[in-house]
Write a structure and sequence with these properties.
Elements (H helix, E strand, L loop, with lengths): L1 E9 L4 H13 L4 E6 L3 E3 L10 E10 L3 H14 L14 E7 L4 E2 L4 E2 L8 H10 L4 E2 L3 E2 H6 L7 E2 L2
Antiparallel strand pairs: 1-4, 1-5, 2-4, 3-4, 3-10, 6-7, 8-9
Length: about 160
Amino acid sequence: MTLAYVALGSNLGDSRQQVLAAMDALDALPATYVLQRSPLYLTPPWGVVEQPPFINAVVALDTELLPEPLLDALFQIESNAGRVRAERNGPRTLDLDLLYMEGVTRTDERLTLPHPRMVERAFVLLPLSAIAPTLEIPGQGTVRALLERLDASGCERLP
């Protein structure tokens, strides 16, 4: 089994329900178990700012899936939620990003691990810090230290 972290986000439709349903879908993947679920956060849009705010979260998985089959499963869960890839950083019903897999460092056309832009995004590091503050991102530092460098003032933990 391998420890992996997946970021979840949504800003179209019932975003809270989309994220919670995706967490359940991740837990239902073959040979995969959700170990931890972060709190949900309401966060401002990033990239394209003229869109609704997002609901964001992170889950920790224990999985036997290799990176590519796990990525394929994430894309399928997004598709099942009605995700249409129309605009980069634009609105979406569901966005799932494979952030980190223990012991896996890679860069290729399809997948880069750890996720190359996660250290720039408070909406990723804030929920990740809630479940894995001491996780060491290779060559970057701990999640907690990386989060301290960012402005998370627009992010709000939801009840």
